[in-house]
Amino acid sequence: MDALDSTDIAILRALQQDGRLTNARLAEQVALSETPCWRRLKRLEADGYISAYRADLNRRKLGLGVVAFVQVTLGDHAGDAPLQFEQRVAAMPEVLFCHNVTGECDYLLQIVAADLDAYGAFVRDTLRGLPGVSAIRSNLSLREIKAGHALPL
Q1: pTM for this predicted structure
Q2: Is the backbone of residue 107 left (phi > 0), alpha (psi -120 to 50) or beta?
Q3: pLDDT, tens digit, for every residue of 89-115?
Q4: Are the beta carbons of 107 and 71 closer than 8 angstroms?
Q5: Are 115 and 62 in contact (CB under 8 A)?
Q6: What is the rounded distance in angstroms from the CA atom of residue 141 to the CA atom of residue 16?
Q7: 64: three-class secondary structure by DSSP
Q8: Alpha carbon separation from 129 to 42, 108, 136 (Å, rounded)
Q9: Domain HTH asnC-type: where (predicted)?
Q10: Which residue among 52, 55, 61, 82 is buried most deeply as judged by most CB within 10 Å?
Q11: CA–CA dist 44, 15 (Å, integer)
């Protein structure tokens, strides 16, 4: 973050709060005129500080009532089993996050499903069939305390 000044940080904070801000409103919030604000925004995008714009959707309204945190252990770390596992998981819309982690398992996934039956079918029919999988441990979310994507700036 050495290349960012306080105005760049202010732009990033404002966009994390509301990605739909117009350039005029963003410029007003960060005390710039519109053209310099637009230039900074384009530089932040080009330099990769802003990777995407998206809408946060309400999963419950969309019928996704179950959130599971799943630890996956691979039995075979040789060859391309890990790469095949990662590629297949990356293509699954039910998997919101997948991290290769240290500790007792190899991967930690966050998965959403409509209900427990749908989650059980996903584990049985999809996760267990992935290359190299030897163990799956699920933790179901009872209540969401905090959900967000805003990074501390």
Answers
A1: 0.86
A2: beta
A3: 999 999 999 999 999 999 999 999 999
A4: yes
A5: no
A6: 25
A7: coil
A8: 43, 17, 11
A9: 4-65
A10: 82
A11: 11
